[in-house]
Amino acid sequence: MAAVRSMSRLLSQRSINQVLRRGYADEMNFTFAAGNKVFYNASTVKQVDVPSFSGAFGILPKHVPTLAVLKPGVVTVFENDGAVKKIFVSSGTVTINDDSSVQIIAEEAAALEELDSAAAKDTLNKAMSQLSSATSDKEKAEATIAVEVAEAIVKAIE
């Protein structure tokens, strides 16, 4: 409580009440969608781990509100029944709200078991070839992004 009192000069009463209310809960409301598929729609889950440009992090119920940009990598969802789902995302955003609901919106996403290792390696080789032959800044930027995503897919599958 002493820490909360010392913060009281910096926080509004509403913010203090939110800090004091935070506690442990067993599950959180979770929505995860991409342009090609809805993976979770207002489902309840125990935990979600996400790859972020500020560093990978885990989301538990009552997580502090956050907005982050996803980098290419694997989102791991720990469901209430103990199942663990791994979904590759190319990019996107994660939003954690005041009410502890979590939304992930991905540009593209696919369950790991749907990805083909040989095709991923072929895509990586093609992207690296495009990067080495790129001449304009735009071509280099596009090829760099393609290499980054392909490398992340290959790493996720292995």
From TrEMBL:
It is found in: Mitochondrion inner membrane. The keyword Acetylation applies. InterPro entries: ATP_F1_dsu/esu_C_sf, ATP_synth_F1_dsu/esu, ATP_synth_F1_dsu/esu_N, ATPD_C_metazoa, ATPsynth_dsu/esu_N. Pfam families: ATP-synt_DE_N, ATPD_C_metazoa. One of its GO terms (molecular function) is proton-transporting ATP synthase activity, rotational mechanism. GO terms for cellular component: mitochondrial inner membrane; proton-transporting ATP synthase complex. Gene3D superfamilies: ATP synthase delta/epsilon subunit, C-terminal domain (1.20.5.440), F0F1 ATP synthase delta/epsilon subunit, N-terminal (2.60.15.10). The keyword Ligase does not apply. Keywords: Acetylation, ATP synthesis, CF(1), Hydrogen ion transport, Ion transport, Membrane, Mitochondrion, Mitochondrion inner membrane, Transit peptide, Transport. Residues 115-156 form the F1F0-ATP synthase delta subunit C-terminal domain. Residues 29-109 form the ATP synthase F1 complex delta/epsilon subunit N-terminal domain. Component of the ATP synthase complex composed at least of ATP5F1A/subunit alpha, ATP5F1B/subunit beta, ATP5MC1/subunit c (homooctomer), MT-ATP6/subunit a, MT-ATP8/subunit 8, ATP5ME/subunit e, ATP5MF/subunit f, ATP5MG/subunit g, ATP5MK/subunit k, ATP5MJ/subunit j, ATP5F1C/subunit gamma, ATP5F1D/subunit delta, ATP5F1E/subunit epsilon, ATP5PF/subunit F6, ATP5PB/subunit b, ATP5PD/subunit d, ATP5PO/subunit OSCP. Subunit delta, of the mitochondrial membrane ATP synthase complex (F(1)F(0) ATP synthase or Complex V) that produces ATP from ADP in the presence of a proton gradient across the membrane which is generated by electron transport complexes of the respiratory chain. ATP synthase complex consist of a soluble F(1) head domain - the catalytic core - and a membrane F(1) domain - the membrane proton channel. These two domains are linked by a central stalk rotating inside the F(1) region and a stationary peripheral stalk. Belongs to the ATPase epsilon chain family. PANTHER family: ATP SYNTHASE DELTA/EPSILON CHAIN (PTHR13822), ATP SYNTHASE SUBUNIT DELTA, MITOCHONDRIAL (PTHR13822:SF7). This is ATP synthase F(1) complex subunit delta, mitochondrial. It comes from Aquatica leii.
